[in-house]
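MOLECULE: protein
FOLLOWS: sequence and fold
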Amino acid sequence: MQKIGGKVTKFPERAWQTMGLWNIVTGFTGNMRGNVAMMFALLLVPVILAVGAAIDYSRASQQKVAFQTALDASALALGLMPVDATQAEIEIKAADVFDANFAGTGTWGTSIVAVKTGSSVDLSLAGNIDTMFMGLANIHTLDMHVNSEVLIGGGTIEVAMVLDNSGSMSGAKLSALKVAASGLVDTLYDGLPSNTTDLSFSLTPFAAFVDIGESHANDPWMDRFGQSSIHNENFNTPSNRFDLFNNITNVQWDGCVEARPYPHDVQDSTPSSSDPDTLFVPAFAPDQPDNGGPGSKYRSRYLSDQTSGSWQVRQQNVAKYTPGSWANTGYYGTSRNIGPSLYCRVANMIPLTTSQSTITDGISGMFALGTTNIVHGLVWGWRALSPSEPFTQGRAYTDNRNQKILILLTDGANYLGSSGGSPNNSRYSAYGYARAGRLGTVSASSSLLTDRMDDRTAEACQNIKNSGVTVYTITFDLNDSDTINLMRNCATSAQHYFNSPSASDLDDVFEEIALQLRSLRLVR
């Protein structure tokens, strides 16, 4: 113990040990003859110098990283300036952004230097940091240099986030996803003007379906007149699904659509009435036969059959959808809202927008229900980036100053669900019923249907990459080797695939992707 300022202070055990070692050393040197003591002292100094140098270099390295980050932020801000910006305007902007990003961390070196050459700006900062230990070797400062370069007058990024909202994502997993995805958005917007149009996001939550929004009911790319070859596959006479919705008093179309017939289901085909199969058909789960036990074969019975006969006659009877009819809606389990919008329970898709709050609000509003249809979510994320209908906010694929990015996350395999013994051979899905063969099989085997969905997913991935879109994929807390391999191959490269085994790691994954995307705007 030692008395300091009138108080008795007890040194920690490590301090006593250190002092004991020092006493041994000084005692030893005090009892050594002069030559031996001198040799020991000469050997001790390099040891102290080596340890001190490591500390000084570590401090310098940390400081250099901080300055490089601030310099890159300045470069990103300059990238938004017009090509005809003057040298003086560039210097002022660079200094302001650098100071704002490095405020409160002290001073170092000289002022930032920004030199404009054509549409390129080279930024540099040179200076030094005082050493703490290397002064023993007469080295009192360490010189450091940081550089960055950016193209001004352009350079835009479009990011489509395609995020699994199936039931297995509920709880902590969805909470972690919301934090991580919002963090990526915030990182990319950091340092940009609030009115920037050079960065845009879309959001595609997916489960069994994608909800594109009921406001699109009358858009020309919707199959408003029952022209598509799949529009009437569940009815015994030609019928317009929108008319059937309107006939049922207490329901409306909720915004989900079925997958288009192959190959349009995995392509960015421009919808046109001249090729009806390129149009988008509203999801409409038909009323199923009354003669099935609760929760067994037929899970969506909401109207009286108004006929007798086989299950197919009962299910396909259009006459029961009479004007003014009332659906017996309710819930079978937690994710199945009985009625024509069966399984259409997912947060709305958001097309490309430059509004940061619109995307973060959309992320915040996500909820987890239902099964997993990766390929359906994937292609709608692609369509959000596309310059052609159904959404036209995307820049042209030929715009070489624009980067199109798609980020896909899933925590499970493709899955249509068991038919429960129904002759439909599957649950109702974006691919209708399996008995229609739209996945290339009429089998009721869940594993076979998953394999066929995986095949479509792989094909869609290749088509997306061929269009020039950079694809990032994330498997989240997933142990299914088939899906892991599917997602690894879907990514643009091995560096664009991330396997996140836990919620705690997810934020780091999204942050790494964000940093990669920020660097797209930098030349070096």
Remarks:
- The two ends are 56 Å apart (CA to CA).
